[in-house]
Amino acid sequence: MDFGAGPARAHAPGLSQTRMVQIEQDILAKNNAYAAANRACFDAAGILALNVVSSPGSGKTTLLVATIELLKTQVPVAVIEGDQQTSNDAERIRATGVPALQINTGKGCHLDAHMVGHAVETLRPADGAVLFVENVGNLVCPAAFDLGEAHRVVVLSVTEGEDKPLKYPDMFASANLMLLSKVDLLPHVDFDAKACVANARKVNPRIKVIEVSAKTGAGMAAWIAWLQAARTLAFPSGEVAAATR
Amino acid sequence: MHEMALAESILTTLQEQARQHDYARVRTVWLEIGPLASVEEESLRFSFDVVVKGTLADGARLEIETSPAQAWCLSCCKSVAVVRRFDACPECGGHQLQMTSGDELRIKELEVD
Ligand SMILES: Nc1nc2c(ncn2[C@@H]2O[C@H](COP(=O)(O)OP(=O)(O)OP(=O)(O)O)[C@@H](O)[C@H]2O)c(=O)[nH]1
Ligand SMILES: [Mg+2]
Ligand SMILES: [Zn+2]
User: Which site in A2, A154, B65, B82 is 20 to 30 Å from A98, CA atoms measured?
Assistant: First the structure.
């Protein structure tokens, strides 16, 4: 196929006043610029930002509440909640005592970096904090929107089926970590965890997997250890200390 | 779904570029959309038509170009063409693939007056 030729581009001088303009611009350039600004602001403040994505009801908020209970004595935590409607999730987080801000996207099916930038200005997470951003429950659209996060964490519950990584490959390809949630339900569902992990690795050979249950606490220690390691890696102790001072 | 957000983003770019390139109307927009960009072409066309109503791009035509996705096979140490993200390497059948292109979402060129 030759994109350089073709009738649409052939100009017949005199017949039309139109002209061609080369622009070569990424459609997501604007979002990416806001994401880069967020990332710079997080780095300067030693904030570890995590974009938590999943389909609706995979257990993100429940998992965040359980995580916060374990983490809040170790590091400052803040949460941005994205939802089309309601501020229920932010209220559930605030009940743990950590600051949370709700963004209602209305018709929007994803958070973008501009919304997150504004939310951060209002929320003002402490220096050295772990900032969780719970995205709108949707395995498609949020994949394309970088929020400036250090890591993207995809949550998949064992009630959803082991084929999800293949059905929504973009999301699993763009995530660093998959949390297989609600594993307390494994005895009650026909879910092949091994096949699910194999599917995830087909679209993303480097994805890390941790099995968790917010209900029983299974796997929570491994998840907290992953968070602490990610924090240390991003901000070797001196830097976090300096940023926190 | 997010095709609406993409259409809005395209319109913003067209409006910004109008100042810079001094045009009043956009007649055609050439986009490059990779096969892995998870964009539903028909949905994007529909959203674009809706979003540009009453703007400088009202009635503009969308020309969408797609080139095959490429991946780097870690086992073969070479670049191979793939159709979907989870395809196996067409040479060795392995899954040690690193996507190198295919998620493009770019405005390439405009026909304006
Ligand atoms: N058995 C079991 N149920 C869970 C677990 N975690 C969450 N749930 C249940 O799953 C349902 C959804 O949980 P949420 O935490 O609201 O899920 P979410 O992903 O935040 O949902 P949205 O924000 O609406 O997308 C609730 O009924 C929870 O009680 C778990 O570890 N085990
Ligand atoms: Mg929630
Ligand atoms: Zn190969």
Answer: A154
> Is the CB of B106 less than 8 angstroms away from the CB of A24?
yes
Asked whether the beta carbons of A132 and A48 are under 8 A apart, the reply is no
Q: Which DSSP state fits B8?
A: H
Cα–Cα distance for residue pair A59/B54, rounded to 1 Å: 43
Six-digit token string for A52: 């938590």
Tally Cβ neighbours within 10 Å of residue B10.
25
- For chain B, which domains are there? 3-112 (3.30.2320.80)
**Which CATH fold would you assign to the domain A17-240?**
Rossmann fold (3.40.50)
Q: How many contacts (CB atoms, under 8 Å) link A and B?
A: 105
> Any bridge partners for residue B99, and if so which?
B71
ipTM: 0.79
Nearest CA to ligand 1 atom 21: A57
Q: Chain A within 8 Å of B96 (Cβ-Cβ)?
A: yes
| pTM, entire model | 0.85
Q: How far apart, in whole angstroms, are the C-alpha atoms of residue A99 and residue B62?
A: 45
Give DSSP secondary structure letters for A106-134. TT-SS--HHHHHHHHHHH-PPTT-EEEEE
